[in-house]
Amino acid sequence: MKLNQKQFDELNNLDSWLYNYKSIKAGIENLKLECEESKNVSIGSADPSKETAVTNKFSSNVENSIINTESLNNRAKFMESKIKKIDRALSSLSKDEYLIVTNYYIEGKHIYEFTHELGISESHCRRIKDRAINKIKIALYGVQVKN
Fold this sequence. Notes:
Blueprint: H1 5-19, H2 21-40, H3 61-91, H4 95-106, H5 111-118, H6 122-141
Helix pairs in contact: 2-3, 3-6, 4-5, 4-6
Pfam family, one: Sigma70_r4
Domain RNA polymerase sigma-70 region: 89-137
InterPro entries: RNA_pol_sigma70_r4, RNA_pol_sigma_r3/r4-like
């Protein structure tokens, strides 16, 4: 299967989303807090001095607050959607695949740190990890990549 540039970029970006999974979840919560804070900012009244005769554009604290809140909401929704898709893809993995992916990517452990707990060799663990990542790619993007 030939990949277009967007699919190629998404596949290469998967590792980054998995490695930064916890930070992204924290970022979502922080964006939501920022949205709430932005909504609660004292809006006040529009300042007529900000009106410009040349462009007939009007800029105000209200307008800026709405634009900022909308931008924060959109970023949070995008990140939240991506995390939900990753969670759904992770739930499709076998127990061993799930443990390997979460330990390696999300917890940031080295393979040798958890293979003993699973009772498998490092090389077998790497094969399972590769198979699991391929399953995640299929679940997220509908694309299977041959190794």
